[in-house]
C-alpha cells in the first residue's frame, strides 16, 4: 500500500520513522517547503504544494495512494481542508493526526483569542515588550499595535520589509525546555507572550516558563478542521495503520 503523509510536524516524522521499512508499505512524506534545511527523514520526501484540492486529488490517483495521512500543523487549516476535499474526490481513505491542544492550568494567566488580529488588540494600549512565538508568517498582523517592542524567534530568517517598527529577530531551532525558556524571557525583559495553541510537548516549555515567571500569555485558539477520522498521536496512527483497519474511503 502506498501512503502519503502530509507533514511538517514532529508527529509526521515519528510516523514516517515507524512505517519506514515495514513490509508492504511504500511511504512518502510531503513537506510544504517553508524550511530551507529540513531535518533528514527515513522515507522519501517531496516538497511544495499540489495545486489545491484538485491537484492533490490528481496526485493521489496518479500515484495510486491507498491512504492519505494529514499530519500537518494544527494551524494549517487550508491544507487540512484541501486534504479532506482531495481524499473525497479521489475516493482515498484519510486519517488525521491531531495532537490535543493545551489546557489552562493552575497558575496560567491566559487571554484566549480567536485570531492574530485579536491577539494584537489584546496587548493593550500601553507599550510592552512582547515575545511572539507564532512563526514568521503571522508577524505582520502586529503592525496594528506598533507601540510595542516585539521579539520574534523563528527557524528561517524574516525579511526586513515587515511593517512592525520595533522588531528584534532571533533565529533558533527548538525544542527549548522550560528552564531555557525562563532564562531567555527574564534576560530579554519580556512582559507578555503571544502563542498559538499548538499543543504537544515540543513547544510547551514557553508555557511552563511563563507560568513560573507569572507572565501573561495571549493564546490564539486553533482554527476549525474538517471532520475526518483522527487519532491524537503518532503511536495511535502507527498502530491503526499496522492493524490494517483503515478508515473509510474519503
Protein architecture, described:
β10 (192-196), α6 and β11 (217-220) form a beta-alpha-beta unit. The chain folds into two domains: 2-100 and 224-243, Rossmann fold; 110-220, NAD(P)-binding Rossmann-like Domain (Rossmann fold, 3-Layer(aba) Sandwich), CATH 3.40.50.720. The strands form two sheets. It has a six-stranded parallel beta sheet, sandwiched between helices. Helices cover 28% and strands 22% of the residues. The radius of gyration is 19 Å and the shape is elongated. The chain is α/β, with parallel strands linked by helices and 250 residues long. It has helices at residues 10-19, 52-62, 77-90, 116-122, 178-187, 205-213, 234-243, and strands at residues 2-6, 26-31, 45-47, 65-70, 94-97, 110-113, 129-133, 149-154, 167-171, 192-196, 217-220, 230-231. It is built from seven helices and twelve strands.
Key features?
elongated; 250 residues; 6-stranded parallel sheet; cobalamin biosynthesis; 22% strand; alpha/beta; 2 domains; Rossmann fold; 7 helices
Short description:
InterPro entries: Precorrin-6x_reduct. The protein has 250 residues and is an alpha/beta fold.
Amino acid at each position: 500500500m502506498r501512503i502519503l503523509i502530509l507533514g511538517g510536524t514532529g508527529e509526521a516524522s515519528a510516523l514516517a520513522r515507524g512505517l519506514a521499512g515495514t513490509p508492504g508499505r511504500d511511504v512518502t512524506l510531503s513537506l510544504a517547503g517553508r524550511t530551507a534545511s529540513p531535518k533528514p527523514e527515513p522515507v522519501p520526501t517531496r516538497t511544495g504544494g499540489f495545486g489545491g484540492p484538485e491537484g492533490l486529488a490528481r496526485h493521489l490517483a496518479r500515484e495510486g495512494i491507498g491512504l492519505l495521512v494529514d499530519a500537518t500543523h494544527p494551524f494549517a487549516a487550508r491544507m487540512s481542508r484541501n486534504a479532506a476535499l482531495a481524499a473525497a474526490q479521489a475516493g482515498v481513505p484519510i486519517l488525521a493526526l491531531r495532537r490535543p491542544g493545551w489546557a489552562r492550568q493552575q497558575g496560567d494567566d491566559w487571554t484566549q483569542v480567536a485570531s492574530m488580529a485579536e491577539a494584537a488588540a489584546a496587548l493593550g494600549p500601553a507599550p510592552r515588550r512582547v515575545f511572539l512565538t507564532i512563526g514568521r508568517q503571522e508577524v505582520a498582523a502586529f503592525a496594528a499595535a506598533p507601540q510595542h517592542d516585539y521579539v520574534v524567534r523563528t527557524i528561517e530568517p524574516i525579511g526586513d520589509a515587515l511593517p512592525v517598527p520595533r522588531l528584534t529577530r532571533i533565529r533558533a531551532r527548538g525544542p527549548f525546555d522550560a528552564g531555557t525558556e525562563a532564562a531567555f524571557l527574564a534576560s530579554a525583559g519580556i512582559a507578555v507572550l503571544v502563542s498559538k495553541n499548538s499543543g504537544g510537548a515540543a513547544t510547551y516549555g514557553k508555557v511552563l516558563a511563563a507560568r513560573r515567571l507569572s507572565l501573561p500569555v495571549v493564546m490564539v485558539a486553533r482554527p476549525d478542521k474538517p471532520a475526518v477520522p483522527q487519532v491524537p498521536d503518532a503511536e495511535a496512527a502507527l498502530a491503526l495503520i499496522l492493524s490494517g483497519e483503515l478508515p473509510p474511503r474519503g
